[in-house]
Amino acid sequence: MFEFVSGAITCGFVVAAVFFLRFWARTRDRLFAIFAAAFALLALNQGIVALAGIPREELSWVYLLRLAAFSLIIAAIVSKNLGAARRG
Fold first, then answer.
1. d(CA 38, CA 18)
2. Phi and psi, residue 29, nearest 5°
3. What is the reported pTM?
4. How distant is the alpha carbon of residue 79 from its chain centre?
5. CA-CA distance, 18 to 4, in Å (whole number)?
6. What is the reported pLDDT for 88?
7. Helix (DSSP H) and strand (DSSP E) numbers for the chain
8. Going along the chain, which residue ranges are E strands?
């Protein structure tokens, strides 16, 4: 059952990454490209956890992928807000 749920979560992350890539292709806004990369990292993280059978993800090196993904999201939001403040 764990593998099935992990696969569904991975699929959801991949779908989100593809949607953000589509938005990026339409607008060429860097925010969407970074969000797509972050969701791709989250999908990779979840896929590795499911395939490797890691029981406690927070104690393994794989957790660094999740940390990198959330760091990318935070950096993208801060960058977007600072850019808007400079223009306005």
1. 11
2. -85, 125
3. 0.89
4. 17
5. 21
6. 60
7. 3, 0
8. none
